[in-house]
Specification:
146 residues; alpha/beta; seven-stranded mixed beta sheet; 3 helices; ATP-binding; T6A_TsaE; P-loop_NTPase; metal-binding
Length: 146
């Protein structure tokens, strides 16, 4: 499935639609990978997902800290935490271990949004959903789900 978003308001609406249709895994974390060039909208989408999940903290890119964990607000069935991982600065999947990735993957209360999955593909299980972002010259974005 593909969708075109032209504004931040449309991105927020798309994130709400995504969360509304998400079926969290029952036997471990729900892993969603986010692919696309720098500036394509991966972090903006994560921020929109966080808003849709009633995260009260400010959501920023974890590029330099690699991982941020947010408690979900509101009443989100089955999900307790949003884990945002940015693998841009990593070279192999083994670098996920110090982040406690294996433990995070075992908790069915976790929704993990992982940017730059191609950098750590050797350590990733099959994601529940793969999302890719393409930015167009007019600053609109195509979001593709697989």
């Amino acid at each position: 499935m593909e969708t075109l978003v032209k504004t931040l308001a449309e991105l927020d609406a798309e994130a709400e639609r995504f969360i509304g249709g998400l079926a969290p895994k029952e036997d471990g974390a729900t892993l969603v990978t986010l692919s696309g060039d720098l500036g394509a909208g991966k972090t903006a989408f994560t921020k929109a997902v966080a808003r849709a999940l009633c995260v009260e903290e400010t959501v920023n890119s974890p590029t330099f800290v690699l991982e941020k964990i947010y408690q979900l607000g509101g009443e989100t069935p089955k999900l307790e935490r949003l884990i945002h991982i940015d693998a841009y600065r990593l070279e192999t999947g083994s670098e996920l271990a110090p982040l406690g990735f294996d433990e995070l993957m075992q908790d069915s209360g976790n929704l993990i949004l992982l940017e730059w999955p191609e950098k750590v593909a050797d350590a990733l299980p099959a994601p529940a959903i793969r999302i890719s972002f393409v930015v167009h010259p007019n600053e609109s974005r195509t979001i593709s789900y697989d």
